[in-house]
Amino acid sequence: MKTLYDKLWDDHVVHAFNDDTFLIYIDRHLIHEVTSAQAFEGLKLAHRKLWRVDTNLAVPDHNVPTKNREVIDDPISKIQLETLDENCKDTGITKFDMFDPRQGIVHVIGPEQGASLPGMTIVCGDSHTSTNGALGALAFGIGTSDVEHVLATQCLVLKKDKNMLININGEIPKGISAKDIILSIIGKIGTAGATGYAIEFAGDVINSLSMEGRMTICNMSIEAGSRVGLVAVDDTTLDYVEGRPYAPKDNWQQAVDYWQELKSDNGAIFDKVVEIDATKIEPQVTWGTSPEMVISVNQAIPNPSESDNAIKREGINNALNYMDLEPGMRFDEIKIDKVFIGSCTNSRIEDLRAAAAIVKGKKVSKDIKLAMVVPGSGLIKRQAEDEGLAKIFIDSGFEWRDPGCSMCLGMNPDQLQPGERCASTSNRNFEGRQGPGGRTHLASPSMTAAAAIAGHFVDIREFCDD
Amino acid sequence: MIKFETFSGIVAPLDRSNVDTDAIIPKEYLKSIKRTGFGKNLFDAWRYLNNQDLKSKNSERELNPDFILNKSPYNNAEILLARENFGCGSSREHAVWALSDFGFKAVLAPSFGDIFYSNSFKNGFLPIRLKTSDIDILFNTTQMIPGFKVTINLEDQHIETQDKKKFIFKIDINLKNRLLEGLDDIAITLEHSDAIKIYENSRVKVVPWLFKDI
């Protein structure tokens, strides 16, 4: 009896070393401009060739401006983008350039293009590679030395993780999305709660979720400490994959037969099981500087004195101080300066539909300095325009941008200014993440959209009834 | 990679939990295409008073006098003492490069982010997991005695403090050997080239669609 993770692992073992590490074969390597340059340089210095050119796919995303990208003002960003161009040209790696309609955030375009498929091992020099696990693939982030290692050998030396099952059952209340589910899980198990584990997400709620929702959940596995988030293959997966540009065509039925085995066997043993009652999940908003510092929108900002642990108290105090918040404050008294809808967590078409449904016919609050929507890829952008979503956002007062990582991490011109407070659909509320001194509150697309209209977070369940 | 040898160094206590890789090296400083030069921006937001200043040279920026690494003798520390979940968050190897470039050779903590932990060994940098109670003792001592030194012996897997306390740590044998011998990971894997080819040849029969060109 094997778990899904066990099956994926066993299918990719090339060699077992004399301890508990293994040489694991990598089927797909996704590349972006920030974590690859030093890897290509290392190969050149050692006169090493790529093991398999044809399995790599590159795309610039972290540094690309989301408007007027013809001109890149930051010379260092420009060098990084040009270096990726040169490295792909020299090696023959396929790359979608900034002006290609298929360009977008690496974790969005992998599944979108069918470059990420069920049953694969997928790596990328980025911790949110776990997103691809929603397809029933073993996908995880790696550092630059491992990027070089994969380029040179198509393998990685790895130790197997333990198995964790997170079962999410019960009917999801109205207004609650995949983002609220994963934030509440992180709140419950903590930011290191799944360190050393591969998480499989299962249960009624996961079964009924769309691929987009599953990707949002797997995306943030790393925020609970796990490199790997997984969902078993089912009809939703197969429907999503079929017809994508790099999905199998001639071998489709053979692939489907293979993929249908990609689920945990009945009775498979997990090292840890977490049960989540979906009926109790409320709209989530982070208040602090770690994704585990998350509460329901109607809860008050916590008081450090309520924690029994000195290090935790110190952590809460540091976070309150950085976020400029007082214990007991309510979200409706915390004014938002900027709004960001985008990132590999929440920039897919379903996210944009959810946000557009909230803002339709309403105006962004005059207190908001900037509200922006950044689609995850050029194709999502086009689809959203065709569906009329872009017009809804623009009419409400949002800026409608070109695809990229944008303000999720502010390596490009989209940044918070010191002290600014942002309602954001991204994945990390770390100090300075969206710009030095910037303050981030993470929430779902609909919660973030509603915050843009109200100028502060509101309970989406009441907002819907208006 | 240079071999990791037994050494004694000053311990700098960084009394925070969940120190993420964004804090270790903020994204503003990830734009180099080299592996060196990140040390001056290690813990940038805590280390400099005006951390919004991207224009000035680092040497012209005002240091935060309260930050531990700006105080003597910690500016010469080679061992970082940290709390749980050190190095969580982003996969950026730049975090390890920045710690190394500053002069750190090892970090002691109760637990680490997985990717950071794995990245460390690729750079001759040693992350050591110690029991929380041992970490508490080290925090107490280092905070009382500035410049407190410990000796790290990877071969025997122990740390000895200057007041002769010994702490044992666990580490995977392969990771340990790679550091001790300064081995090149890629060269080791390429010794298994035949096994990789055999795997590919059998795998392509089962999942032929995975061997089509992108």
- pLDDT averaged over residues of chain A: 96
- Our count of helices of chain A gives 16
Q: Give helix and strand order of chain B, one letter per element, not per position.
A: EHHEHEHEHEEEHHH
Q: Which percent band covers the strand fraction of chain A?
A: 15-25%
The largest inter-chain interface, given as chain pair and residues per side, is: A-B, 82 and 61 residues
Low-confidence stretches of chain B: none
Largest sheet of chain A: 5 strands, parallel
What can you tell me about this protein's structure?
The complex is a heterodimer of chains A (466) and B (214). Chain A is an alpha/beta fold and 466 residues long. Chain A has helices at 4-10, 37-45, 75-91, 106-113, 144-153, 178-189, 204-208, 211-219, 235-241, 252-259, 310-323, 349-359, 378-386, 389-396, 445-454, 460-465, and strands at residues 13-16, 21-25, 28-31, 56-58, 94-95, 121-124, 138-141, 155-159, 162-169, 197-202, 228-230, 272-277, 284-286, 294-296, 338-341, 370-373, 399-400, 421-424, 439-442. In chain A, the strands form five sheets. A five-stranded parallel β-sheet of chain A has the order 5-4-3-6-7, sandwiched between helices. The model of chain A has no long low-confidence stretch (mean pLDDT 96). Chain B is of the alpha/beta class and 214 residues long. Helices cover 31% and strands 15% of the residues of chain B. Chain B contains eight helices and seven strands, in the order E-H-H-E-H-E-H-E-H-E-E-E-H-H-H. A seven-stranded mixed β-sheet of chain B has the order 4-3-2-1-5-6-7. The two termini of chain B are 34 Å apart.
